[in-house]
Amino acid sequence: MRLKLIFNSIIICGITIALTCCKEVIDTPTVIDIGINLWIKDVNGKNLLDSTNTNYYKAAEIRIFNLVNGIKTEVFNSGMQAPRNFLIYKNEGNGEYFMKLYPYEGIGKAYENGTRIETTTTYIQWKESITDTVVCTITRIQHSMYCTQVYYNGILKYDEKINKDVSWGEGIFHRFIEITE
């Protein structure tokens, strides 16, 4: 009888320790805010994502590559809503098409103080002969990740300290970048 009581006590203590020790304490909510809104036009002002334009970029032909440890790696995640890390939307307020790009987020490890700032590179291959470079500053603070700067083909196009959200057609857009190809 005494042996059974000791055995049950050990089992209960083991379960209690397992449940309390493995519990992760999260003191802040997780925020992932890295999406970039790109409005792509040609030199005549025609939207290059609109299929009514003759030289438009077809979504099925666009490829995204990340520079991972110095190696250019094509993005394709079949189980994701944006398997190639982009989506094309139509702004119903102004009829313009735009791309929501999810750039490379980096390696994801934080420094000891809980913050890491990392520069990442993403390539957008619009067509076989046309590729643009997007360099982002990704800032991680505890459990959250933000894109704080965007360079498009070497030109600073967004800086969170300078740029504000943009009212465009039907909506307010964060990290809205207008590109002329």
Can you describe what's shown?
With 181 residues, the protein is mainly β. The chain has one domain. 11% of the residues lie in helices and 42% in strands. The protein contains 1 helix and 13 strands, in the order αβββββββββββββ. The strands form 3 sheets. Strands 1, 3, 4, 7, 8, 9 and 10 form a 7-stranded mixed sheet that branches. A hairpin with a 6-residue loop joins strand 5 and strand 6. The radius of gyration is 23 Å and the shape is globular.
Sum up the structure in keywords.
181 residues, mainly beta, 4-stranded mixed beta sheet, 1 helix, 13 strands, 42% strand
The residue ranges in which pLDDT falls below 50 over 5 or more consecutive positions are 2-26
| Domain unit count | 1
Q: Count of DSSP E strands?
A: 13
- Cα(first) to Cα(last) distance is 83 Å
Task: Calculate the mean pLDDT score and round it.
Answer: 86
What's the helix-strand series? HEEEEEEEEEEEEE
Shape: globular
Number of helices: 1
Percentage of residues in DSSP E strands: 35-45%
Give a quick rundown of the structure.
With 181 residues, the chain is mainly β.
How are the elements arranged and paired?
Elements lengths: L1 H20 L10 E2 L2 E6 L21 E6 L2 E4 L11 E5 L6 E5 L13 E13 L2 E12 L2 E9 L2 E5 L6 E2 L4 E2 L2 E5 L1
Parallel strand pairs: 1-9, 2-13
Antiparallel strand pairs: 2-6, 3-4, 3-7, 5-6, 7-8, 8-9, 9-10, 11-12
